[in-house]
Amino acid sequence: MAELYAVEREIGRGGAARVFFARDPSGAAVVVKILHPELLVSVTADRFLREINILKRLVHPNVSRLIDSGERDWLVFYVMPYIPGPTLKNALEQRRRLEVGEAIRLGRDLLSGLAYAHAQGIIHRDVKPENIILGKEGAVLLDFGIARAVEVAGTERLTRSGIAVGTSSYMSPEQVAAEATIDHRTDLYSLGCLLYEGLAGRPPFQHSNEVVVLQMHQTEPAPDVRRDRPETPGMLAEVILRAMTKRPVDRWSSAAEMLQAMPTE
Q1: pTM (2 decimals)?
Q2: CATH no., domain 6-81
Q3: Is 264 a residue whose pLDDT tops 70?
Q4: Fold of the 88-261 domain
């Protein structure tokens, strides 16, 4: 890896990996992500790399593509283009919430990317503010399919370790319940939670105990974002509310259908 990518600095750290700004042999800026060593204790590296390799076929302006992946000196890494811009998490930390028009554009960008990936049979499974870059050309989803790859490549030790595949504030009820079959509608639920937070300035379900938050996703009715942001257009509020229904069958049938129902401005 050292011969291929010149690592310049660490720029982030997520649940699965440390993130570094680097240059490829041509000098182009890239992001190198290295799986945490403690995760590798519970994940089969070869299987993880096989799983994420399918992501190379994703080519869409709202989805970060996979350039490369591999293993070197006991480190498992994957490489994506560097996209200038803050994450949605950074933006919300600075401003607390988005303008209504920004939230609409964000939702449309993300739904466009999700519709494309879902049509390829690939589910994100960890849609959250940290995994979204607000680039000049629009919002870009990062780490598509990485959560699934970690889960598929995980050994029994991964389950015992308590490492979560997903993020509590945005996990669908079926994901919380670790159901055997989880489809693309889990991403729509997570997006509904994310858009709610973008407008309201807080996630739809909050508690100091993370376990309680997970229980709320399964049992508490989804709140109407207009409770916290009265000026939210009714059409947008209804789109978000339907995305956050408990049963997948009651949500939008697809990202494309949800996109069609979104207001344009």
Answers
A1: 0.89
A2: 3.30.200.20
A3: yes
A4: Transferase(Phosphotransferase); domain 1 (1.10.510)
